Amino acid sequence: MESATKPREERKAVVLLSGGLDSSTILAIAKAQGFTPYALTFRYGQRHEGELRAAQRVAEASGVAEHVIAEIDLKLFGGSALTSDELEVPKGRSEGDMSEGIPITYVPARNTIFLSFALAWAEVLGAHDIFIGVNAVDYSGYPDCRPEYIEAYSKMANLATREGVEGSGPLTIHTPLIDLSKAEIIGEGLKHGVDYSITLTCYDPIDDQACGECDACALRLKGFATRGVADPAPYVKR
Fold first, then answer.
1. What is the pLDDT at residue 25?
2. Residues paired with 69 in a beta bridge
3. CA dist 48 to 16, 28, 84, 108, 154, Å?
4. pLDDT by residue (tens digit) across 85-105?
5. CA-CA distance, 8 to 13, in Å (whole number)?
6. Phi/psi at 125 (5° precision)
7. Per-residue pLDDT tens for 152-173?
8. Interhelix angle for 215-227 vs 182-191, to 10°?
9. DSSP codes, the chain
10. Is residue 221 over pLDDT 60?
11. CA-to-CA distance for 23 and 134, rounded, in angstroms?
C-alpha cells in the first residue's frame, strides 16, 4: 500500500508563454489543473519585443518552475508584418475585415516551430503535457490555430519522439481556449486570478503600451467590453 506521506509525483507541463492575454490565461489554467509549469517564450525577431518583458513579468508573478527564452530568428525569412520592417501592421480594421483571409501578421509556420521547441524540452523534462493558447473563435484567421492542426501535430509528435514511442504515456497538447470567445477567456483568467495589467497583447506596441488599433488590440478590447470589465493594461489609444 502506498504511504500516505509519500509526495505526489510532479506533473510537469511546458507552457508556451508570449506574455499576452491568452498565454497568461493558459498558464493559470495549467497551474489550476495541478501541473508544475515550465514556461517557454521566444525571441524570434518580432517587432513587438515588449511581449518578452510581459512574459517575464507573468512568469515571475505566476511562480513557474523555470522560464526559458529561446532565441531564433524568423526575421531572416520575413514574410510577416511581425518579422519584417517592410510590411506595416494593419490597424483600424473592422470585424468583417479581420474575418476574411489570412492577414499579413501571420508568421509562416510559427506555431509549428514553437511546438517543436516545446516538444524537445518536454522530452528532456520527462513531461507529457504541453499547453498552447491557440483559439479558433476570436482569432485573426491563422491556419495554425485550428483544431485539425493541433490534432495532426499531436499525432506527429507521438510518432516522432522517443518518449512517444517508448515512454510511459502519450504526449498531450492542451488547448483549453480553442473553443472560447475572448470574453470567455477573460472570464477564465479572472476566475484563476490572472493579473491582466502586466500582460501585453499587441502587434505594434510603443514603450510597452498597446497601440489600441491593431487586430490583437481590437479583439482583446472587444473581449473586455463584452465581459463588462475594464482592461487594466496600458494603451496608447483605446
1. 98
2. 41
3. 17, 23, 11, 17, 29
4. 889 998 988 877 877 778 888
5. 15
6. -75, -15
7. 999 999 988 877 677 677 899 9
8. 60
9. ---TTSPPPP-EEEEE--SSHHHHHHHHHHHHTT-EEEEEEEE-S-S-THHHHHHHHHHHHHT-SEEEEEE--GGGT--STTT-TTSPPPBS--HHHHTSS--TTPPTTHHHHHHHHHHHHHHHHT--EEE----SSSS---GGGSHHHHHHHHHHHHHHSHHHHHSSS--EEE-TTTT--HHHHHHHHHHTT--GGG----SS-BTTBB-S-BHHHHHHHHHHHHHT----S-BS--
10. yes
11. 8
Question: Which domains does the chain show, CATH number per domain?
Answer: 12-227 (3.40.50.620)
Instruction: Name residues whose C-beta falls within 8 Å of residue 101's C-beta, 6 or more positions apart in sequence.
Output: 141
Q: What is the mean pLDDT of residues 115-124?
A: 96
Please say whether the beta carbons of 159 and 167 come within 8 A.
Answer: no
**How far is 100 from 155, CA to CA, in rounded Å?**
29
Rounded to whole angstroms, the Cα distance separating 14 from 64 reads 10
- Cell 491593431 identifies what position? 214
Name the residue among 189, 183, 196, 169 with its Cα closest to residue 224: 183
Q: Which cell numbers in the block locate residue 238?
A: 483605446
Could you tell me how far CA 213 lies from the centroid of its own chain? 20
